[in-house]
């Protein structure tokens, strides 16, 4: 990086830092650290207002081209923004799927009409999006999609079921991968559709997680419709568009995620020092390995920022998912026996009966442990990521398929 670029980036970092200091105050002060994994239900309306406040000040979609409402920020500036945001312990964003995934996908593959219709609502956080990929029989193996869409006049008519659909209960729209060519199989004959969720043919049912919350859902399409021109790319090109979107998913925002990981690890280390767990050589070794793993994760992310190779994205997913899962287990080791008892117990120490799981109370580290069990599954399971690396990067024979 040239010296002038370094100075520009330092000034940009100072600007972001100052804005966050001046704005995470007043009604937004209580949002610091809220809405993270396992706590997505916390302060949702207030976090939505915060996202819209960001938008009004030009701090959403900063990497988008200026003609579509972005700042045209460089990769370095986008990394700086996400890292400064995480350092400020600012609240989890509610518009990640629209801003970081669908928006860049529309810019890359959408028509000008689609961009003009949907990008302003994403940038201003007036329309929220859900991701309609996984199905009961097509989780990490997305090519098994069976949800269908047939073109009738000026409408696509959609039938099928999606599952693990994050934020569908609060979103107005979903981007849906559906099979539009009868008789097609695997990644052939799929299309990428933009579908309104507020219509009679759509049913959204929350799925309760181990943490007692319901961040994701199952979604049923029964003759649901969307306009014929709301297919991104050509009909039948859905696999290409869907894979393109996944390369955006593992982009610069992961570096901000790692700041949060670092904060969790530092706090766990402080707890270990305070309760004596750090005297245990096994615990010290696990903490040291976690620190080294975090550095490796960052080095890989920085080295591959502009690499669209799906193999690199799979390596990144394996690195952070397994690391974070192990961190949850480490937190339980550090807490010791107290990790088994949460706020939901009576004065005699007997666990109380949970009659309303949605109001299950968990300590911070219990929530971390339970939620991170899913890290190696959602967004592409470990097994799928290893298959991608083996087949597409190492050139090994493809796994036998039924």
Automatic annotation (TrEMBL):
The record, for InterPro entries, names: Acyl-CoA_Oxase/DH_mid-dom (IPR006091), Acyl-CoA_Oxase/DH_mid-dom_sf (IPR046373), AcylCo_DH-like_C (IPR036250), AcylCo_DH/oxidase_C (IPR009075), AcylCoA_DH/ox_N (IPR013786), AcylCoA_DH/ox_N_sf (IPR037069), AcylCoA_DH/oxidase_NM_dom_sf (IPR009100), Mycobact_Acyl-CoA_DH (IPR052161)
Give the enzyme's EC designation: 1.3.99.-
The cofactor named in the record is:
FAD
Q: Name one GO cellular component term.
A: plasma membrane
What keywords is this UniProt entry annotated with? FAD, Flavoprotein, Oxidoreductase
Which positions fall inside the Acyl-CoA dehydrogenase/oxidase C-terminal domain? 236-394
The membrane spanning regions, by residue number, are none
Q: Report domain Acyl-CoA oxidase/dehydrogenase middle positions.
A: 130-223
Domain Acyl-CoA dehydrogenase/oxidase N-terminal: from-to ranges: 10-122
Molecular function as annotated in GO: flavin adenine dinucleotide binding; oxidoreductase activity, acting on the CH-CH group of donors
Its family remark reads: Belongs to the acyl-CoA dehydrogenase family.
Stored PANTHER family? ACYL-COA DEHYDROGENASE, ACYL-COA DEHYDROGENASE FADE29
Name the UniProt record assigns to this protein: Acyl-CoA dehydrogenase
């Amino acid at each position: 990086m040239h010296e002038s670029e370094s100075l520009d980036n330092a000034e940009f970092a100072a600007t972001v830092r100052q804005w966050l200091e001046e704005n995470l105050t007043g009604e937004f002060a209580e949002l610091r650290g809220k809405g993270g994994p396992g706590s997505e239900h916390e302060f949702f309306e207030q976090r939505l207002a915060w996202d819209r406040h960001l938008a009004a000040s030009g701090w959403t979609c900063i990497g988008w081209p200026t003609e579509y409402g972005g700042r045209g920020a460089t990769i370095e500036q986008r990394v700086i923004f996400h890292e400064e945001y995480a350092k400020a312990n600012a609240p989890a964003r509610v518009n990640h799927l629209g801003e970081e995934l669908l928006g860049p996908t529309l810019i890359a593959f959408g028509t000008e009409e689609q961009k003009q219709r949907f990008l302003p609502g994403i940038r201003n956080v007036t329309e929220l999006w859900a991701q309609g990929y996984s199905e009961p029989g097509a989780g990490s193996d997305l090519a098994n999609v069976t949800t269908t869409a047939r073109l009738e006049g000026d409408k696509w008519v959609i039938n099928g079921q999606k599952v693990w659909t994050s934020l569908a209960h609060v979103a107005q729209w979903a981007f849906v991968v559906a099979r539009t060519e009868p008789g097609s199989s695997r990644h052939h004959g799929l299309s990428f559709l933009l579908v309104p969720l507020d219509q009679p043919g759509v049913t959204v049912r929350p799925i309760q997680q181990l943490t007692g919350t319901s961040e994701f859902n199952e979604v049923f399409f029964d003759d649901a419709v969307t306009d014929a021109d709301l297919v991104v790319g050509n009909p039948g090109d859905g696999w290409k568009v869907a894979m393109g979107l996944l390369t955006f998913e593992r982009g610069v925002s992961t570096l901000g995620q790692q700041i949060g990981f670092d904060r969790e690890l530092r706090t766990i280390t402080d707890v270990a020092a305070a309760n004596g767990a750090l005297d245990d050589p096994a615990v010290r070794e696990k903490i040291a390995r976690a620190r080294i793993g975090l550095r490796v994760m960052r080095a890989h992310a920085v080295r591959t920022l502009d690499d669209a190779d799906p193999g690199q994205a799979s390596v990144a997913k394996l690195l952070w998912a397994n690391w974070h899962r192990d961190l949850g287990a480490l937190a339980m080791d550090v807490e010791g026996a107290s990790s088994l008892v949460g706020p939901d117990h009576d004065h005699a120490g007997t666990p109380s009966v949970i009659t309303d799981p949605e109001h299950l109370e968990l300590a911070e580290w219990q929530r971390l442990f339970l939620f991170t069990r899913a890290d190696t599954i959602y967004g592409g399971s470990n097994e799928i990521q290893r298959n991608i690396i083996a087949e597409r990067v190492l050139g090994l024979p493809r796994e036998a398929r039924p």
